[in-house]
Task: structure prediction
Amino acid sequence: MKLIKDRAKARSYREFLYILPFLAIVALFAYYPLYGWFYAFFDYKPPFPLTWEKFVGLKWFQTMVSNKVRINQLLEVMRNTFAISGLSLAFSWFPMVFAVFLNEIKARTYKRFVQTVTTLPNFISWVLVYSIAFSVFSSTGAVNTVAMNLGLIQEPQIFLASPDHVWFKMWLWLTWKNAGWAAIMYIAAISGIDEEMITAAKIDGASRMKIIWHITLPSLLPTYFVIVMLNLANFLTNGMEQFYVFQNAFNKDYIQVLDLYVYNLAMGNGGYSLSVAVSMFKSIISVILLCVTNGVSKLVRGQGFI
Amino acid sequence: MELHISTEKPKTTKLKMKYGIGDRLISIVTYVVYALFSFVCIYPFYYIFINSISANDLSDKGKVLFWPLGIHFSNYANVLKIPDLFNALTVSVERTVIGTALTVLFAAFLGYMFTRESLWHRKFWYRFVIATMYFNAGIIPWYITMKNLGLTNNFWGYIWPVVIQPFYIVLCKTFVESTPKELQEAAEIDGAGTLKIFFRVILPIVKPILATIAIFAAVAQWNSFQDTLLLVTDNKLFTLQFVLYQYINQASSLKGLINNASGTVNIAASLAKAQTATSIRMTVTVLVVTPIILVYPIFQRFFVKGIMIGAVKG
Result:
């Protein structure tokens, strides 16, 4: 009996040894960097190592709001973050509606084609999106050429190097890239709707709009609710890649979101420590948002999403 | 109502076709709107492609809109003559192949190991890995870590930080759990150890989900831009995405370089083939996007399946 027990134990440890190298990788690349948050409390200037003499306490958190310029900058960054995240949130129903009406198309080949084509942009990088934007919207690009040929405009319009409607444009690119992909989840949910319910409604003489309104949409609401909660939890996180590639001297005041600000601070005049302080401040609010939305989700659906 | 159905059977079969005017209108509007949306999604790709094979003086002036004019393929040969670009192509292919292979293998192995009841503190270690989905130290701490580990300006800096993806591990674990336990038990009775079971029994049955993961991982590796931006200053390690980004911003200085190198003597005759900022940009864009477009339709069914499994789990 003891022999069997020992054997089981030996195997238990041996299996742990097999996964140990992988756990080490996780520890090294996901947990170990967390110590870098200490830099927010020091006056860190690379390449000199960190020493206790450089300890500055909460100085950098105060610096964030120390003078008018910094405050204005932070307010501007928050305004951009809220505007862009707010737009995404306000239009978060779009992929759902996209899926619902796509489902109304009866020609299967056409439906397939639309789905394939609209999902494709999700798989290209932001650099490629930028390259496409540059090509299509440059002064000799397709949009300007066609508009001038049609006589809609006299002069080529400048789309990318301009401070106008930046938030809306960023939302458009995001939608162009993601809407088709985001719709897949709803399409899967629609295919799970009980056919009999729809047939019954048809027999009762319900029009298509009525079926959509009373059957399809209500059965998608739980999925949509999760998406909204995730959107809220990630409200401060826009990622930096999209805004990094699209940023230029003209749109800088409107495009700098929190994630990009953290990067620009570190690479520019702000220094590492201030950048880490800003990113820490963001992380703390994000964690609170995640807990709150998860709590709301538990209250409403009876289960969270973490 | 029920009586109505049972007495007039033919009518119920016809119901499908019987749409009111409102419903027909919806149909038409739906078709048109989706056609427009599809056009907006696909036309830019087509536009860039036809420009890359058109006469360069025409493409530079924006004359090429719907079909190629003065077709020639010399742009591709010329662009690949830029030494940095060819090198970047190699780096991108290498990181995609190596990164994908390791990510897939590790996801399969860990997914399987986390189903082993016998694993020491299995639940704790599983959570230890999965928890990393929900937090992120931020780019600067991450950069400093990478620097301390000697992974800046190092090819492996593209690989090691991303080889363990919790989400893929969840997918694999769910998949392994859905397969009959008897397979593993039978192998165990035959004297197979943990590792042997993985390679002989598990790996062959999880292949479908691994195909899905491989696509995701490969696309992520191919598209990755931020890691080059943060970690790499050595242009021998630049990826195609990074070089493309540079070219978009500096294509005008490059065109001189190429035109000098290819020794365009007869200017009048070669105007159509002399490189312009536009032609370089478009051609490189096509090069970067082509692998995605080639791989995409073949594997579309895989990722639809993948997202369904993920949705069931989440």
Remarks:
- The mean pLDDT of chain A is 86.
- Residues 196 and 202 of chain A are 10 Å apart (CA to CA).
